[in-house]
Amino acid sequence: MTNRDGARLLALPPSAVLGRPTETLADVDTTLEPDAVWLLGPEREARAFARTRQMFDAPAFHPPLETDGEVVSRQPIGTELEIAVVRSLRALRASPADVSSALSDSRSTPIAVVCDDVTTTTRPTALETGLEGAAELAAALPPGRVTTVLTSGVPAGYDELWHLAAETGAIRAVEHEPQLECEPAGDDCVSVRVRGAGPVEGYGGSASLSVLELDETGVTAVDTYERSDFGLEAVAGIGPKTAERLADAEVTTRAELLETPIDKLAGYPGVGRDSAHRMHRHATVLEAGEPRRLTDESLPAESGRPPLCLDIETDGLSPTILWQIGVYDPADDSYRAFVERDDPDDPAPVLEALCDWLFASHPDRALLTWNGWRFDYRHLGAFVARHVPYYVEEWESVPKFDLYDWAVREGHALLPGRTNKLEDVAGALGYEGAETGLDGAQTAAAYQRFLRTGEEFDWGRHEAYCEDDCRALWHVYERLRDAPRATDSSDTSPAEAEGATPSGTTGGEQTGLGDF
Amino acid sequence: MDTDDAADEDGTEPTDGSREDVPVTGDELLETFPRYRDEEDVSVLEIPGREASTVPNDEVLRPELAGPLEYDLYAHQAEALAALEHDENICVATSTSSGKTRIYALQIARNVLEARARGERSTAYVLYPTKALSRDQERELNDFFDVLGLDISVRVYDGDTDPGETRRQIREGADVIISNFAGVNTYLHDHDRWARFLSTCDLVVVDESHTYTGVHGMHVAWVIRRLKRVLEYYGADPQFALTSATIGNPGEHSSALIAESVTVVDEDGSPTGPRELVLWNPPARARADGSDGDSATAGGSEDEADNAVVERVPASVEAPKLLSHLCYHDAQTLLFTPSRKLAELSVKRASTHRRDRSRYYANPDRGSEIEPYHAGHSRTKRHGTEHRLKTGALDGVASTNALELGINVGEMDTTVQLGYPGQRQSFWQQIGRAGRGTRRALSVLVAGHRTLDQYVANNPDYLLETDVEDAVVDVDNDAVFARHLLCAADELALKGADAGAFAERERLERAVEMWCRAGRLAGHLETGISYVGPPRPQGSISLYATSGEEYAVELADGVDERHDPEMEPLAEERVLRDFHEGAVRLHEGRQYEVCAVDHDSPRPTVTLRPTDADCYTRTRTDVTVLDAVSEESREIGDFTLHFGRGQVLVYHGTYDRVDVDNGDPKEQGLPTENPPLSIETQLCWLEVPDALERALVERYREFSLEDEDGDGDEDGIAETAHLGYAGGLHAAEHATIGVAPLELMVDKRDLGGLATLSIDSHLERERGENGTTGKGGTSGEAPRNVAAAEATVRQIADGLEHEPKSGWFIYDGIDGGLGFSRAIYENFEAVAERARELIADCDCGRVDGCPACVMDDQCGNDNQPLHREAAVDVLDRLLGNESGEALEADAAESESGSDRRPPLFYS
Q1: Spatial distance between the Cα atoms of B416 and A468, rounded to a whole number of angstroms
Q2: I need a labelling partner for B708 at 20 to 30 A (CA). Which of A7, B122, B348, B840 fits?
Q3: Nearest-neighbour CA in chain B from A199: distance (Å)
């Protein structure tokens, strides 16, 4: 996966450990390659912990069981880094000094403190959100600097900087974009950067596993996965019930699945012949890292000139401006970015520039996006109608395709990659990205800050990020184009392709800017 | 006029043709009804008719619209159309069948014609409270546009509309889209798909707008605000046309809903004939007569306690007889029943009545085509019934309030109401169904046992007063606001411009900060705030609850789908009170038992199975109020009335199983297994002046409670001299809540109260007093259960340095509040006046009252202590009645002053 330099901390809820075959956990281990495993509290789950220690090579810890006679224990993450693990808020309340001394150890300062009881409490009737554990943290953490606290009490991706009065824990202020600016608020203030590792609610279920990339500065990235992204359940058509039945028949890995003849598979309750075929095909795709086409349908815009690969950057999920529109033209391997650098209050010029160029230079070309019907096209359509209404008709007549939609929702192809995020899919297909370290949410927040403050903006990095997505999209397209069609492979009948939409695809639908 | 006489039972065939107007008059009803008994029980009121007031069509409308219309416009229609022409928003609050639909239909026609003349389009969004009404009105509007010869496409778009292509066609092609607010809430998420329709929208119609009150009303108010934001984004600035039944405050209510000024049109220009109104209190029940001891009486209402001291024949038995009788006498009659089951039963009972009185009803087939009607029937069946009513093929129908709202069934001769529908607004709406043009109409109200019914039966003038209840809608509930704010941010980025337009800046900023801290919103107001939480926040809005904590209602495994109660999700507050495990509930007249409640899963549920039990359940409730903070107060004489906010701890800890037939408890004190509920809500409270308190304590110091259940004197209160006075406060609390619906469109089930001898110990304490701060801070010092809270209250009472005030609280039983106690605060005198009448006029003759006056089946203290006289004394003094003044004189000398006041409180 990305960023191999830092260390990787896998945050794992006990429910994902219990009731899952060991082979699935092994798949988690080999896929995510954690340097340490954090079995989430605050409930004490001794059985799950035993299992975790058994199944993962990396050292594991479970805060409620971190006794050692101490309130706080130290946990190495990889070879260079260390975090402090606090058993519970109660323990912290009893002896705050222990944490202070652990954190002020000059030999090696932990990069973060884990405390699973820390959570936000929202009281809508009072329009207030407070921080559970604020008083304890204020008493235990050093004032005048920022300490990162990791907790499963808030969802993965949560990142807020709480400034607490050192004396009382009263909330002084909360900074909402610590990824852009993360400064302490004075010597009488304990500044806590709270970062989540808990489950994230999505369209289809909740993403309950997360991987936190760490370096000496703290958390650099957070990726989330669903339980069903691993083991047999990663195969389309295998849900928890089918996985259980297969496990009873001692089929617990994808390799074993592939070794089980179709006839035998089709004999298990709830699996018919068609789904047995489908399972085999998808397992092959996942194991081999090769995409597979399920129908004879041509790829969108497959004949004639290749489509233009498009990606937009906005200032948020409800955008007020589409400030960057990147277009990669595979025909001559050229990339073009339309960027608003001068007057971010006016969304029209970028759109106008795009339309001018598109209609003048490429009147006959189709557009291609990843999940564009839910995001890029949706907003482009609305913005064109509103800001450059004279182009509406031309815009509407441009052929538009969504490769994600075609492959996943319409079920024309199976893709490797544990999620349907473009980054994951392209990565699984061998695309090597530009490693900008950005995601959509970060680039949106950064542009918002530019809007607000006019401060210096790293145009190069953000443009590279957009371009990378356009090129990754073309990479996926090419790999799909080169994959054999359904009729070229012996075990497929066209009818089977019907309804082949994998059940595990919901995780790829957009749940936040982080997903695209 | 005693007709209880066998000779009369023969009756006579009604003589046809001798009257011009109505088949049966009120007096004739009294004369002909078999075994009619006591004159005292019936009043006949005369309501004069009204001449039509019309305006020639061509004065108001362009020729192509005026031409095809057969009749002239009524004055109110013309007035409304004129106001619309002047770019005003309107609220038309006139009677049933006064042609309100025609107003907005004509406005739509005008808009479309004008737009087409410019080569543009004009669309209208027409919103009804129910899907049934939507289909009905789709036909009406299409028919009307046919008459006008206009090609205007009217389509329904709601949960029943086929997904996919059909929906796309409607969004892109329809001129008029009919939907409901649950739909609007959902569809706003994908507003870009609606861009064509929204950007040309010139009119938004909110039909039957009076139905949007309470929790539902505030959700609708916020959905409208969100819709307006999106409309503005697409450059549309439509007018709003609201239509309402007659309510007390149509202008205020409409403005609160749409956040804009509204021109009220309420001078009804449609004609009506004179009307006779018969208030019919059923005769006393013959105790020995088993046939009248009807097993379905508890079906009359979920809240009915069936053990009135004066036992009359239940309305559910009497009303069907009247239906039968009136139909026999050629009067096409519509009977309104409170439940589906009673609608069905009433039809059977109507026919039984014929058979039982076969000597009187010599020709049993005469006027015997009677059918039930309710939302549980298929659409086809309902349409069939509607049609047969319209064409006169049916003699009578027993219907739920499904026929109260504007579905067109033509006009009846007579209406009968099985019980008072609870509000004058609804009462008028229902009886408005009777009356063919300007012909004479007859309406009969058969009173039930309940407080309000008996009040109305004993105070017939109440119905004729010109005032109608105020509709209460309130947008101050921050919990509801905050949820809609998430949706708004998901629909379009929140910007500085939303301050003022969507919510005032300070409130907006606080809510944004709250959600940013919680990780649900991201960004800045200057540049735009987006929603970043779980997908589709619109889906988590329940239009019937304030918090996200709502419970889906499901059928138990293996139960046939057709028993599905199709209930809206329930608010947590309702679940804890009425849907605990083991509860037996009536829904739309069908009986269900709650077999499981799941509080803990991410998607909480209540599981029901149909049952046929001979009992219903009644929850016992402990309540206390903590940390109340006064935000406003005013003097009423030497009383002080406060409005504010506070924490209410409610614990529905046990329940009783009560016999359906006689209201006797069969099993008592069963555990509900409920967690306690803590809500932050709005409340008002009244402080009684010290001097009056002293006088009343003195006057009623002899009052004591019988220790009926022999469980000893748990609270050590039975002996206290304050008990009589406390009983007075407790009775006054019950009565003020009980009659609040007479003045305001509030739901009694959403109100709660607490009478207390120590108001001060329920108030937020100053910092430092007793060594604690008032609110629990972040670490949650607030008591978590009612016992602890009550202990806290007593402890505070003991620590008070001054003598506390006594009085009672009334609170909104919904987290965040509903505006109900605020409306009571503003209308307290009127409510108190009604309460006084209710208590003083009740003929139960008991010190501690009866269920028709001060007893309340939700009482957490088993209706003890209650003291009617003491309550009347308090209310008299509050209202400045003379009898109150005299009290203190006789108490002045005997003042003992030495009694330490016990911290008693009763819910």
Answers
A1: 74
A2: B840
A3: 11
B116 within some domain: yes
* Domain termination site, one of B265, B288, B305: B265
Residues B257 and B187 grouped into a single domain:
yes
Domain span at residue B692 reads 620-774+782-906
> In the 3-class helix/strand/coil scheme, how is A47-64 assigned residue by residue?
HHHHHHHHHCCCCEECHH
Distance CA A442, CA A438 (A): 6
Whether the CB-CB separation of B104 and B259 falls below 8 Å is answered with no
Interface test with A, best of B517, B547, B550 (most A CBs within 10 A): B517
State whether B478 and A315 contact (CB < 8 Å): no
Instruction: Flag if B524 and A154 touch (Cβ within 8 Å).
Output: no
Q: Does A208 touch chain B (CB under 8 A)?
A: no
Q: What is the per-residue pLDDT for B288?
A: 38
Say if domain A229-288 classifies as CATH 3.30.450.40: no
Residue B501: inside a domain: yes
Give yes or no for residue B259 having a pLDDT over 90: yes
Among candidates B49, B80, B78, B140, which has minimal Cα distance to B432?
A: B49
pLDDT digits (tens, 9 = 90+) for A135-151: 999 999 999 999 999 99
Whether B38 is covered by a domain: the verdict is: no
* Interface predicted TM-score of the whole assembly (ipTM), two decimals: 0.90
User: Looking at residue B129, what DSSP letter applies?
Assistant: S
Residue indicated by tokens 């606001």 = B481
First-to-last alpha carbon distance for chain B, in angstroms, is 45
**Interface with chain B: mutation pick from A89, A123, A125, A450, highest number of B CBs within 10 Å:** A125
Tens-digit pLDDT profile for residues A249-296: 888 889 899 999 988 888 887 788 888 888 888 888 888 888 888 888
**Residue pair B867/B857 in contact by the 8 Å Cβ criterion:** no
Q: Which residue has the tokens 């009187």?
A: B360
Put simply, whether A151 touches B (Cβ < 8 Å) is no
Decide if A204 touches B, using CB distance below 8 A: no
Phi, psi of A303 (to 5 degrees): -95, 150
Q: Could you tell me if B490 and B448 lie in one domain?
A: no
Q: Using alpha carbons, select from B724, B672, B744, B682 the residue that is nearest to residue B869.
A: B724
- My answer on whether B457 and B320 are in the same domain is yes
Q: Which of B513, B516, B524 sits opposite A452 (nearest CB)?
A: B524
- Domain spans, chain A: 7-225, 229-288, 308-515
Size of interface A-B (CB pairs under 8 A): 129
- The angle, 0 to 180 degrees and rounded to 10, between the axes of the packed helices B868-878 and B723-743 is 60
Residue B446 lies in a domain: yes
Strand ranges inside A176-217, DSSP E: 189-198, 200-201, 206-207, 209-215
Q: Which two tokens stand for residue A249?
A: 């028949």
pLDDT exceeds 50 at position A161: yes
Query: What single-letter DSSP state applies at residue A157?
Result: T
Indicate whether B423 and B532 sit together in one domain: no
Give B794→chain A minimum CA distance, Å: 27
Q: Are residues B243 and B337 in the same domain?
A: no
List of chain A residues whose C-beta atoms are within 8 Å of the C-beta of residue B779: 135
Q: Would you list the DSSP string of B824-879?
A: HHHTHHHHHHHHHHHHHH-TT--TT--TTTT--TT-TTTT-S--HHHHHHHHHHHT
B interface mutation test: which of A123, A168, A318, A457 has the most B CBs within 10 A? A318
Q: Is A511 on the interface with B (CB under 8 A)?
A: yes
Q: What are the tokens at A414? A: 């199976």
SS3 (DSSP) at A7:
strand
Amino acid at B230: V
Helix (H), strand (E) at residue B346: helix B340-356
Please determine, looking at this structure, whether the domain spanning A308-515 carries the CATH number 3.90.660.20.
Answer: no
Query: In chain B, how many domains are there?
Result: 4
Helix, strand or coil, per DSSP, at residue B255: helix
User: In chain A, which residue's Cα lies nearest the Cα of B508?
Assistant: A127
